[in-house]
Amino acid sequence: MSKANKKRSRLIFRGVVLLLLAAAILFSIFSKDKVEVLAVGDKAPDFELVDLDGNKHRLSDYAGEGVFLNFWGTWCPPCKREMPYIENQYQAFKEKGVHVLSVNIAESNLKVDTFRDQYGLTFPIVIDKNKDVKELYNILPLPTTLLIDKDGRITKVITAEMTEKEIISYMESIQP
Amino acid sequence: MSKIKCQCGHDNPFGTVLCEKCGRPMTEEAKKSEVVDMRYEGSARRSQTYKRSIIDKIWNFFSSVKVGVGIIIAVLATSAIGTLFPQKLYVPVNQDSPAELLAYYERLYGIIGTLYYKLGFYDMYNSWWFKILIGMLGTSIIIASVDRVIPLYKSLKKQRTKRHASFMKRQRIYGAGLSGDAGSSLAKAEEKLKNMKYNVKTEDGAILAEKNRFSRWGPYVNHTGLIIFLFGVLLRGIPGFYVDQTMWIREGELRSIPGAPDYYLENKDFILETYSKEEADEVFGEAIDRVGTIVKSYQTDVSLYKKKEDSLPGSTDLEHVKDYPIVVNKPLKFDGYNIFQMDYRLAELKSMTMQLIEKKTGKSFGQFTIDLDDPEGVYELNDGARVDLIGYYADYDGVENGEPVSKSPIPNNPAFIFDMITPEKPNGEKSFVAIRQTLETEENAYQVKFVSAETRDISGLTIRKDKTLYILLLGGLIFMIGVIQGSYWNHRRIWIQKGEGEELLIAAHTNKNWFSLKKDLNAVKEFADLPKYEDRLDNESSSEEEEGEK
User: Which of A124, B8, B336, B518 has the greatest number of beta carbons closer than 10 A?
Assistant: First the structure.
């Protein structure tokens, strides 16, 4: 092998080794310990839950339309505060192809029923009885809201209380 | 960069200290020194050659042992600091709230605690800078090893039997002198060394006896083990390779298992057994007297369910897999997962039994039981009376804006608003009932009275899955093989060759344990009538040896 050739192959060897090692370090930094964490841009995994009236709701039922997926609990104060705003905007957007699907985490039917009547909510409320969807979506704080566009992709994950203005702009963003 | 040509005609790479072939010193420093440094056989470390592109510069940086030691010290120091205060994982506050975490460290450890938090030591094993440090350590191990093991291998392979006198002279163990008959001495030495299980090579009046060269590869085998280990740890970041989760599950609850998608667990019963006085008398009778009770076993009886293949998450269409009693150290095993019994809480409220009475007469309309997880709206009682549950607050925490508030969905402090409908008061009477507290807007004729409460236990379980375990085991095994290989065997070489006339030169080298090398050499010397030698770095012990022989 000529000298120049040798030098070139050494450079390639070293470059490749260093690149692999750098990739390994970056991977270890950006990989999470959680099994699967949903991120913006991911396909929202399908699920099937039963609402207060016994009807089954699948996320895939809303394919082609925007979904405003809200996880909440009756005991959580910010959830209570944003509920009336969500109801208002549900009314405003339901004809425009944006749906609200509200997932209560494992509470009793009575509790959720009372809550719905108290706040006069008309959008579908499903209960995640065995915390399956909560694990699937890795929901930690309540309320957490996911915006899902018409292609079924997650466009935003909101882990805080929302104002009515924010809710309007979020719903506009997923309007097909 | 040019090659260095030795007088023997061999082309050595730039940076060589001792000629790969004949051992002549190549550098001014080596020429001047009495005893030459034999590390890596005086071969050129590969990285010394080129210092041109940025890649070569980075390579050279990691090739340096000094840098490697620096990284090790940094890892040690930061790891040590990380043990000063508890890590985030062991802190009993909300793991996802930075404010609560900061407050915790501040409250317990003051300014140092705040600093500890701000600098990221509170979760350091997951911090980016610690991962970079470990990554740099791995890089350093790989590059420094590659740069040394290849030249070492080459020069040990290329070494000539007959060395130049200047190489012999610069060895730590060296001797020269006249022998009666150089030829027969050499022949005898060869015979003796072969008996002592040396590999003996001869060339033109010179002998090279060598033993246990493989011991030189020990450190590199050891490093390979380390790299495999680090690689295994790295794999844990890939989804599905490593799961370490905890879950609290109440008796009677069925819920999905965190970290194990498609699987569900039902807690049938938690059983805490303690030793009875009789059975424990002989062994821990005294201990029971002293501490009260001693636990015999912690057990959770569970049922495992799997989601049916075509059903979606959230659906209740489940398939029963098996029942199993989880006991400490006897985990439930399925599909690579292990579920361990880790913790428990006893006696959480499960249901409450109440009765409706007429205050004046104390007449009861019967009892009803409220399931605190799934209360009903209406409880029908005797004589046409009923109680409507119009408000339920599982974890009652006072009144806010004229409305009772629950601070969590867990029934720690249940409170109820009842509407009592009786034949006498068909429009109902409202009353707010919490533990040890009854509020009425106006004086009622009827009252819901607490009768009893039923409790249930909660099991704390840990879900583990580790596909990297065997990789870590392999890494550890190779690591140990390398340590043993390098520690229990020594690479020994003895050179004997003819000098001028009947003069004989002897030299010897080992990577460790010079005492045994000298013992070997003494045996050969005695047998073959070789000249005296001296250990030029260890005069003290050689003189001691002579004293011992007297």
Answer: B518
Say whether both A25 and A68 belong to one domain.
no
Distance between CA atoms of A67 and B70, rounded to whole angstroms?
Answer: 54
* Residue numbers of B between 299 and 318 with CB closer than 8 Å to A: 311-316
Residue B91 CB burial class (10 angstroms; 0-12, 13-18, ≥19) = middle
Domain total for chain A?
2
Contacts of A133 in chain B (CB under 8 A): 313-314
Report residue B377 CA to chain centroid gap.
Answer: 53
Give the DSSP per-residue string, B21-51.
TT--B-SHHHHH-SS---GGGGPPPGGGS--
**Same-domain status, A27 and A52:** no
B546 close to A (CB below 8 A): no
Nearest Cβ partner for A14 among B55, B315, B395: B55
A140/B374 Cβ within 8 A: no
**Radius of gyration of chain A measured on its C-alpha atoms:** 23
Residue numbers of B between 386 and 415 with CB closer than 8 Å to A: 389-392, 394-395, 405-409
Q: Is pLDDT of B544 > 80?
A: no
Contact B131 A25 (CB under 8 A): yes
Q: How confident is the model at residue A102 (pLDDT cuts 50, 70, 90)?
A: very high
pLDDT digits 0-9 by tens, A115-150 = 999 899 999 999 998 888 988 888 888 899 999 999
Structural tokens at position B67: 């840098």
Q: Is the ipTM of this complex over 0.85?
A: no
Contact A52, A113 (CB under 8 A): yes
Residue B549 has pLDDT above 70, yes or no: no
Owning domain of residue B139: 45-156
Q: Is B470 exposed, middle or buried (0-12, 13-18, 19+ CB in 10 A)?
A: exposed
Q: Establish, for the pair of chains A and B, how many residue pairs have beta carbons separated by less than 8 Å.
A: 125
| Model confidence pLDDT, tens digit, residues B137-158 | 999 999 999 989 998 998 888 8
Asked if residue B224 has pLDDT above 60, the reply is: yes
- Please tell me the total count of domains within chain B: 5
Candidates B96, B143, B236; nearest CB to A141: B96
Q: Are both A53 and A137 inside the same structural domain?
A: yes
B538 versus B424: the higher-pLDDT residue is B424
Q: Which residues of B touch A46 (CB under 8 A)?
A: 312-313
Whether residues A130 and B395 touch (CB distance < 8 A) is answered with: no
User: Residue A131 and residue B256: Cβ atoms within 8 Å?
Assistant: yes
